[in-house]
Amino acid sequence: CRRPSPSWSNPPQHTWHLDEIKHGNIISTHSLNSVIQNHNSNDCIITFGRIDDPTLVDIVTAHESCSRLHARIAFDRSGTPWLRDLGSGNGSFVNEKRLPRE
């Protein structure tokens, strides 16, 4: 079952994309705005990972370093994105710094 959106989350104010990169090449680009617009609720988080289950993830990734349920992205009122690692095996990094696991 999908985790509820944080109470502070809001739809993004700008256009955002998630690029999936393998060996330095973009292998897939996902529009985060489109994912949120396609939600059937007021859910403003985007979850991604390798598991092909729409009840668990919004974006299915192909990269083998991603866990089945890897991470989620939420946007705050100012439009700042927040990435949360969901206990992935290889971790999630921002500016080469590993994020703590949820």
Q: Would you spell out the secondary-structure blueprint of this structure?
A:
Layout: E1 17-22, E2 25-31, H1 32-37, E3 45-49, E4 59-60, E5 71-75, E6 81-85, E7 93-94, E8 97-98
Parallel strand pairs: 3-4
Antiparallel strand pairs: 1-2, 3-5, 5-6, 7-8
Describe the 3D structure.
With 102 residues, the protein is mainly beta. Helices cover 6% and strands 33% of the residues. The strands form three sheets. The chain has a four-stranded mixed beta sheet with strand order 4-3-5-6. The protein has a two-stranded antiparallel sheet with strand order 1-2. The protein is globular, with a radius of gyration of 13 Å. The mean pLDDT is 88.
* Beta-strand residue fraction: 25-35%
Please report the distance between the alpha carbons of the first and last residues: 16 Å
Largest sheet at a glance?
4 strands, mixed
Helix-strand pattern: EEHEEEEEE
Helices and strands: which structural class?
Answer: mainly beta
Rg:
13 Å
Helix content range: under 10%
The rough form would be described as globular
